[in-house]
Structure formats: structure tokens, C-alpha cells
Model the fold of this input.
Amino acid sequence: MKKIIFFLVVINLMTSIGFVTYLIISEERYEKLESAYRKAEEEQKGLMYAKTNLNIIEAENVEIRFLNDKLNLKNKIYFANGRIFVPLLEYMERIGGKVYKVDDVYRPELGEESFDAAYIGNDDKIRQNVIYIDDVVYISFFEVTDRLGLSAVFDSSHGKIDVFYKQKKLPDESVIKKKVDSKAAYLRLEDIMADGVDPEGSYNDEGLEKLRIIGDYLFDREQVFYIAWIPVYCNPKKDILNDPMETSSLYNAEFIYTLDYLVSRGGKIGLHGYTHQYGEEKSADGFEFGENSPYTDEQKEERMIAALKIANYFKFNVEFFEFPHYGATEQDFKTAEKYFDVIYQQSPYTMGNNKIDKISRGGRLIKYVPTPADYVHNRYGVSDMIERIEMSNKNEDEISLFVHPILDFEYISVGTVGTGIREYHYSPFGVLPTIIDEVMSLDHSFNEIG
Done:
């Protein structure tokens, strides 16, 4: 029996509007019709498809499975500026979906889920989710997965991605949402880095999936959170230097997928140094700036710029800067003020004042955001955090704190039901659930920095 697939055609190409519909065609006619469709559309518009200006690298030996069945895509999978891109028409056909198209807008559809993705051409200022590679339309794997209600499970060491349906959201009445008139509190997720290339790292495939689950948990409860991202992971003793801008790999693509996921859940990305270390120390353990730093003022500025360059490469909006371990000299602060509107730590100008400090610099407003409630030091330190939150509330200080998400990994279990649905359970006794309950009981909620 010949395989039957869906393909898009534009009817009445000679008119200025046209409309989109489906024809069911045999596979051997697929390539001819696809070619004819592109040619007719190009003639109608009087232009050729523009080539992407992204850094395109073939994702060799990467295999995608849908509900445990290998897709066997004929078109290649690519990394484009580090993100995974798949051939839209073929991919949707393989997973049993459809694609509609009007002008430069594609609408993938799977069951009751659909979304619009536009081809925007070569705009360096905007993240491109739809591109053309060798005249084949490609779409961001994150977009075509997350926005269709699917869940991706990565096995980066073996070059595999499994795609399942995502568990249904909890009923609204079972989730406590923030009050409309609640006071603002501030939450930062600390030391987020692509350290899964290191056996000592926390954010391997499993850790990144659990980090995405934390993003879901916060989003479902309408809690805004900030992400302290260390752009380059470094462990000199093991000769490891992982810069996702310089190295395209399935693991790094999963890490960027995870940042995209967190941003789509309301996360705000900031830069937590460049490598968060110097000398022989590994990232997140050491300092980078401050009076004991081996770098000159000019080199420190170059590191801030290098971190910004990586964020810009992936088209992330940088919402803040945080010095590693809060270590900074007077000049370090002045340099950071040149590039960032929010510096996420105690203001050097109002030491001891646990309030957001706003200063003017060259017509710009710079905000210093302290964290008087500090952080959860370990899995047994939640009760101490609750006491500090209550003290901050009593003293009318900012309820502002940071948490290392890895503390909650043991409270999250995840698995696949049958062959089709990826489900998780997040214990209410976890660090973040306990903190959120406490903060909301005080008529606060985690919000954007105002």
C-alpha cells in the first residue's frame, strides 16, 4: 500500500489573494508537487526565497522518535545558531499533523493544537523560527514541539530525542493563583549553566527536563522568575570549556531549548558573569570579578561584552546582570551600569537598605535589586528561608531571594505513561513549592522587577 501524505497547495495563484486547502497525494508525486508549488509561488510574488544568514550545521546522527516510532525523515535535521530545526512539511506529516499556509505564515496543526509561525526573512534583530534551507521550509523544533502540546525527552549522549504528548494541565481550581492585589516579591533561579558536558554537572538531560518542569510549575501558579545564566561553562582541571555559541551539539541545543522553554513560561534571563570563575576553579564555584580578580578593568569589561554577545547570538533579552558571589569593585559596578539596566544585588550606594535602589546614569534608570532573604543553603535550609522571608515581611524589606533549582530535583519524578504521555509529579514538600506557599500566605507573589 502506498504511503499517503498531506501537502499544501495554493489554489488560484494568478489572483492576488488565493486560498489554502489540502490534497491527498501519493508519496512519489510529493517532490514534484512541492517543487511546482514553490516555483508558482515565487513567480506570483516575483521573488526567490531568501537564504538564511544563520550559522547552519547538519545535526549528524540525531534521531527523532514520535511515540517510540522513528520518524525516518528524508530531509536532514540542522542546528541553526545552535537551535534544532526540522523540515516542517515532512515532520508534520510524519507525526500525523497538518500544515496550512497563507502568504508567509505557516500554521502547523496537531489534533486540537495549532499555532502560527511566520517567515520573517533575514532580520538579525529577531529570532527566526521559520527558515529555508536548500529551498525546504524548516521550523524550530522547540516551537513545533512545545506549542503543539508535546514534550521532548533528550538522550543527548546517544543522539536521540523522543517526542510524547504532554500531560494535561491541572484544573484551575486545583492550583492556587496569585491574588490580583498581591505585593511584589522577587525570585531568582541561580547558576543555570550548560554543565551537562561534565560528569560532575547537574544539568544533564534529566536535570534539564526537571528544570523545564520547574518552569511549568511556576508558570501554572503565575509566578515570575529570573534566570541567572552562566553563558560559558568551564572546568579547567578537566580541560572543559563549553560555549554553546561556539559548539553546536545536541546537548547544547537541549540547553538552549530549555532556556527557550523557561522564557515561554515567563522566565527573565540575566547574565551571571561570563564563566563565573577564574584560574583552576570550575564555573559557579569561583569568583570572576572583584578586587581579587586576575583580570584588568578592561578585561572585565570584555567579559561582560562577551557574555552579552552570546545572549544576542541566541536572541535572548538580557534583563539583568549579577556578579558571581556578588564580588565587585567600585569600577566593576560602574562598568556594569554601562550595559545593564538591572544589577541584581545589593546597591553599593545604599548598603544595609534592603530596598530596590534606583539611580540615574546618563539619562538611564539603573536598578539595584537586593536579596535580603538570601538563599536556601541546602535541602534542610528551607525552614531558615521561611524565617528570613517572614522577617523581611515584618521589616517591610523586599521579599527577594534566590534558589538553586537542583535542590528540587529529588522532589520531581517524571515518566512516560504507556507509549504516549509524558507525566511528572512535583512534591508539594519541595523547596520552591514550600517557599511559594509561604510567600503567597503573606499576600505576596513573585513578580517582575518594577
